[in-house]
Amino acid sequence: MKQADLTSTEKQELLTKLKHELSELEQQIESIHQRSAPVQLDQQAVGRVSRIDAIQQQQMAQAGEVLMQRHLLRIKQILLEPEEYGFCLECGESIGLGRLTIHPIAELCIQCQSEAENS
């Protein structure tokens, strides 16, 4: 089903939303960097279970940071090439306002995304 192309106002609103999200992501990544200091190995200063818990939290924060970095890069790509925004990378059709409102960094239309997930 072909989606209507975004109007310039709709596109501008989505890009403004992405700029705001970019700023928030940069702050979150900075916060993760501050919290992911190396874990102390001195068993007398920190108990073994607490140290293991700290290491696990550090690893989860690092995994979250990787996802945030990918998200950040996609937003920067969109902002560098706004004329390409809103069109499916696979078929070239409009992604549609509804999908972009829910998932502003979507690269594929619903049909192409479904085909990609089923193959």
Automatic annotation (TrEMBL):
The stretches annotated as zinc fingers (dksA C4-type) lie at 88-112
Q: Does the UniProt entry include the keyword Nucleotide-binding?
A: no
The record's annotation in InterPro entries points to: Znf_DskA_TraR (IPR000962)
Q: Where is the Zinc finger DksA/TraR C4-type domain?
A: 84-117
Superkingdom assignment: Bacteria
Q: What keywords were assigned to this record?
A: Coiled coil, Metal-binding, Zinc, Zinc-finger
Membrane-traversing stretches: none
Give any GO molecular function from the UniProt entry: zinc ion binding
Alphabetized Pfam families for the sequence: zf-dskA_traR
Residues forming coiled coils: 8-35
This protein is called: Zinc finger DksA/TraR C4-type domain-containing protein
